[in-house]
Design brief:
This protein has twelve helices and 16 strands. The protein has 334 residues and is an alpha/beta fold. It starts with 8 loop residues before the first strand and ends with a strand.
Length: 334
């Protein structure tokens, strides 16, 4: 069975609201139940979904007090009954998809269903490994599994300065596609170009539709949209017939209209996407692991880390994440 972790800090949400509602509780580790593994957490990747979960605006609703944290890297310290595919001491990633209330990874230790654990790909340090699955799993599934983007195609990536957006740029480049990014601040244009974007549109002072018509006069093959809202019409206008708009976020506070006439005229596909389409499908998860490992070996997949915080400064880390200042992943270390 192995030993269980000795550290005992667990970050929990006791009330909904800002970063100040986060508390570090001291909870003794428990042996992993049947079908689960115990993990000594080394680093936790923070995501916008963590902020939404804390504010009670995420898809999954918390039952207070609740753990939180979607993805992490660490070592296995114990195996529950029936788990034979891992071994104590093995370095692994926790992939998103398990219940946060029970299996939130923002802690020194966590018990997680073995189905939500994968071997950590070689070549990544703890910070990079903690930045993998939410950031790369979402665009991998949307762009590779659904849209099947290919060499020479143009791909629109909105909110491209986010961790998911930066990962999408790398994934597009890995298959030879041309990523076009949108941002809100002109100061992000050059960093995004350096990160691999073919072109950048600053939507606060550039018209999205006109810019796309100039950058991609022949049309867009795929759109990976984190924003939604009224701009979906301009995106649909720029799409090639029979191609796909993936909506994976709702950063816009405005309603998202369905561009019916454009969808009819162009036979467009508009669909929502959640990372669990990969993490809930063992075959897709295996393909994603292989894609990331090959991309890392080839130098295309390189998680960008903006800042790291110690676990004791979790509220500060959340405040920084929520400020929107980051260019890359915010990571918490134990």
């Amino acid at each position: 069975m192995g030993s269980v972790p000795v550290a005992d800090r667990v970050v929990r949400v006791h009330a909904f609201g800002g970063p100040d509602v986060l508390r570090i509780d001291h909870m003794s580790p428990t042996p992993p139940p049947s079908g689960e593994v115990a993990i000594r957490v080394r680093a936790i990747g923070l995501n916008r979904a963590d902020v939404m979960f804390r504010r009670n605006t995420y898809i999954e609703k918390a039952v207070l007090p609740s753990r939180l944290g979607f993805e992490a890297v660490g070592e296995i310290t114990g195996l529950g009954e029936g788990v034979s595919s891992f071994c104590v001491g093995q370095r692994v990633n926790v992939v998103p998809g398990a219940s946060l209330a029970r299996h939130g990874v923002c802690a020194d230790w966590v018990n997680v269903p073995a189905t939500r654990v994968v071997p950590c790909p070689p070549g990544f340090d703890d910070l990079q490994a903690a930045a993998l699955w939410m950031s790369y799993g979402t665009p991998y599934g949307a762009l590779i599994e659904v849209c099947r983007i290919a060499k020479g195609q143009r791909v629109l990536i909105t909110a491209a300065n986010t961790t998911v957006g930066l990962a999408a740029i790398q994934i597009a480049r890995a298959v030879g596609a041309f990523p076009i990014g949108t941002v809100l601040l002109d100061s992000l244009r050059e960093p995004l170009l350096q990160a691999g974007a073919e072109a950048v549109i600053v939507t606060t002072n550039e018209d999205l539709g006109q810019s796309l018509a100039t950058i991609a006069p022949d049309g867009i093959h795929a759109a990976f949209d984190a924003v939604g809202g009224p701009q979906i019409t301009a995106i649909a206008e720029a799409m090639l017939p029979r191609d796909t708009i993936i909506l994976h976020g709702a950063l816009s506070p405005d309603p998202t209209p369905f561009p019916l006439k454009l969808a009819l005229r162009k036979s467009l596909n508009l669909r929502g996407y959640l990372y669990t389409e990969v993490t809930d499908d063992p075959d897709a998860l295996t393909r994603a692991q292989e894609f990331l490992a090959k991309g890392a070996a080839a130098g295309f997949i390189v998680p960008r880390i903006d800042r790291s915080f110690p676990l004791d400064r979790i509220a500060e880390a959340h405040a920084y994440l929520e400020s929107g200042q980051q260019f890359g992943k915010v990571v918490v270390t134990t």
